[in-house]
Specification:
Elements lengths: L1 H5 L4 E2 L4 E2 L11 H4 L15 H7 L15 H45 L4 H7 L13 H10 L3 H19 L10 H9 L3 H18 L7 H23 L2
Antiparallel strand pairs: 1-2
Helix pairs in contact: 6-7, 7-9, 7-10, 8-9, 9-10
Amino acid sequence: MSQSLDTTPWYDSESKQLVPIELKIRQDDSIHRDSRWLPKPKKVKQTTPSNNSATNPGATTGGLFGTSFTWSNLFGWALLAVIVMGMVGLTVYAVSRAELRMDNRSSINRQSDSQALPDEHTLERIKHLPPELRRTDVNLRSECERLMGEGRFDQAVILLLGHQLLLLDRSGLLRLSRGKTNGRYVRETRSHHEPIATWLRATADAFEQSYFGRHEIPASVFEQLWRQNELLESATQTYGAGK
């Protein structure tokens, strides 16, 4: 018991007497204890908007609709919106212009390819065509198509046969040479590709009947020849790619 008292702060073991202890009253949490004998803590003053205004007068004064949003803020946001809309508009305009230029360029290239005049090599090969098929001042295919649109099938079939012979010569399906007949060209072609030879034979027959026999070519017959010509062009391109 004596040892236990020696460790306490309120007992002096040497004098064997009690030592008074000065108690410190805590006031910070007394409000939550609802103490009836301790003094109430001082209330902390709450910061009010009026006090903020007093310390910072420019915070709310001069704002729009009673807020801190000022005319300067409104102008800044409006300017930013105009800049963003302008950049978007310029981007859309540039993209649309680029697409339009590409479309025009492709259209011009396609038109140029279909209407280009014969090059030097073609002009040299044209010299080996039969005399009645030689035309060096026009693109044979595009001119044939134009005459077909005008219903001048007797003229169109001449250019159509010349176009096909030049195309097959360029692809190696036949070899143009002065003195060769249409029948020989057909046989040379048949040794490489039977369907192409058949379509060439049909064009040559129509040409001979019109040019030498003075027979009129009906529109339906020439339309059939034109469809076969498109098949001939496609098959010739495939044949050339496979060599």
